[in-house]
Each structure stands twice: as C-alpha cells, then as structure tokens.
Amino acid sequence: MEIAATILIAILAALMGVGVTVLYYRRRTNRRLQNLTLLLKKLALGDLTAPLDTSEIEDDPQLTDLKFAINQLAIELRTVIVRISTERNTMAALLENMTDGIISTDADGYVTLINDAARNLLSVSPNLSVEGRSFIQVVRDHELNAMLRQTLEDGQERVQLLEVGPRRPQLQVKTALIEEESGVGGEPEKRESGRTALVVLQDLTELSRLERIRRDFVANISHELRTPLASTKLMVETLQAIIEDDPQAARDFLRRIDTEIDGLTQLVRELLELSRIESGQVKLYLRSVDLRELIEQAAERMKPQAERSGLDLSITLRSSEDSFPQALADPDRLIQVLINLIHNAIKFTPVGGSIKLSVERFGADKLVVKVADTGVGIPPDDLTRVFERFYKVDKARTGAEAGTGLGLAIAKHVIQAHSGEVWVESDFGAGSTFFFTIPVLSIY
Question: What is the model's pLDDT at position 67?
C-alpha cells in the first residue's frame, strides 16, 4: 500500500508539474500573441511607429518569423504611406498653381475638388466649401452642367467653347471620366468599379483677343497699303501715256508719285519700329535725364515747322532750378515721343494757334510732361482710341490730314516701356492736351 501510495503521489506531482508547465507556457504564449495582436491593431489604425516588445519572442522560433514578417510589413507600409503623402502634396501643389481650372466630381455629380484657377474663372467664392455640393450649385451654369451630365451618362470625352460665369470669359471646357477600381482581392472583373468626372477649364480670352488684334492688324495694314499702291500704279500708268506729249503734267505726276512713296516709306518705317518695340527688341538705355533740356531740344527742332504753319510754340517751366528732379529715362526715345506729339499738335492746329510744352511734378515719384494745343480737338468718341494702331480721327470732323495712325501707338509703347502712362484730354473744337509720366530718378 505504501508503494502504491508513493507511486500515486509521484504521478499526481508529475501531472501537477506538467499542468503548471503547460499553464505557464500557455500564458506566456498568450502574452506574446496579445502583444502581436496589439501591434497589428495599431498598424491597422495607421500607427506605424509603435515598437514591438521582443523580450519574450526572441527565444520562440515559432513566433520569431511572425515577428520579423510584422516588422517588415510595418516598414513597407511606412514607405508606401510616405510615398503616397509626397505624391498627394505634389499633386495638390500642381493643382493650386495651374492656370487651368480643374474640377472633379463623383459619379453622382457632387464636387469633390476645385482648384483656385477654377474658382477665379467661375467667380466661385474662396470661402465657399464645395465638398458635398452638386456641380450645378457650384458652377451655376446650365451648359457646363449639361456637358458633365452627358459625360457621366455615356462616358464620352467632350470639348466645347463656352462663355461661363458672371464675367463671361471664353473657356475651352473638357469633360472626361476617370475609371476607378474599388475593393481588394478577387477577380478583376468581380471588383466594383467607380467613376470620377474631371472638368478642365482653359481660359482662351487672351488668345481670342490676340487673334482679333492680329486679324485687325492684317486688315488695317492691307487697307493702308492698298490705297497708296493703287494710286501710285494709276499715276504711273497715266505718266506713261503723257510723258512725251505733256512734260509739265508728267513732272506733276512724278512729284505726286514721290509723295506717295514717301508716305509708304514712313508707314513701313513706323510699322517696323512699332513691331520692334512691342516685341521687346528695342532696348532702353536709361540714365539720369533733365526733362526740361529734352523739351527745349524737341521744341528747337520743331520750331521751324511751327513757324511755317503760323503757330506759336512755347515752353512753360513751373519748377525752380534747384528743386527740379532728374528723371530716369532713355533721352533718345523721349525726344522721339516729344517730336511725335509736337508734330501731331502742329498738324491739327489752325494758323494763329499756339502749342505749349511744360513739365512738372506728378506725385512723389513721377514727372508729367504736357503738350497742349489750341487746335481742332478730338471728338469724344475717339478719345479712348487715338493710341490704337492705325486709328485715325475722321478728316471730315477735324479738317486736318491724318497721318499713318502709328505715331501715337509708338509713343504709348515707349512711355509704357519707361513704366509711365500716357493719356489725352480734349475739348472738341477748342484744343487737346497730351500727357505722359516718367519716373523720377531715385538717389537711394
């Protein structure tokens, strides 16, 4: 009995030891698994910096591989998220700095994104939150909304010219679909497919304006050349017929042909000059300039012409010698502008009239030059257009012979190249005053 009892006690003790050992390892394994489970939960929530407690795992070959796999997963996820974040920030910067407007919507036509360019083109308030709003609520244009709806329905890209928004800019609008796959795993054909609509707005207003200017320019230059060329051709044909029979008339026709050729030469010269100025090929050589001296030089050169026309050309200086500031300008170009304006005044001022030149302060950092005449003046309807290329005031209304229509355009571009402004005031029938400003030379 004693032996049996001893054996029974030994067996019970062994079973208890095994039970304790099993319970110990089970609890230890559970702690390890809980640690791994907690880490996986943190990874699922996006916490890729959570450290893994490896103090109880290093000596467990069954969990070591799993620990290594989880650590690798965390590293890969961190790399992918950093890359996605960088790409997202880059895309956001591109969208915000694009000159074209971009709007995206979901499959139901609700806006998910709009960049600043689109807001400006469509006059959408920068404080308006567009997310969750329908496309028509944001753009408030039925033609644009109809384009998007058609694209959402049939998936076809569309391109159309529209005038959209309160300011009615001319826009080239493109609508397209972006197919997106959703869902993870499974066969590709069994995955759900979503649709995102993209609307691209390209502002063509400036291009249309430039194209219109180009067409007007071609039409104007054709008109300006056609008349003198036709006249010259007619006089040459007449000259050929009379050169032997009427030498006096032939000489008269030669003189008139010479006048027409001079006019054409001046037109071409001014046209080339204007083209060079507008294209930026003319460089300004800016330096310290006394505008009073330039005015005196221009007046001296134009005084004989004014006297031949029976006009009084005078200069008025309102600033004292000591306080008069220097200007920052190209003297040769300003002389060209002054002669142009004085010549214009002489041409449109009747005999007995006067032309006065002056220069004075204009604000804190500019000087203003005035060329005033007592001529026929400019009709009110023409005041805003006299600086356009080839624009000429109607001879029947002014009684003066118009020039090429390029002189004032050249003057405007020269002054603007000096960061100045040019304008005109006129009392029709009682004279005109042309103004232009030039920056003062800063001594600091």
Answer: 67
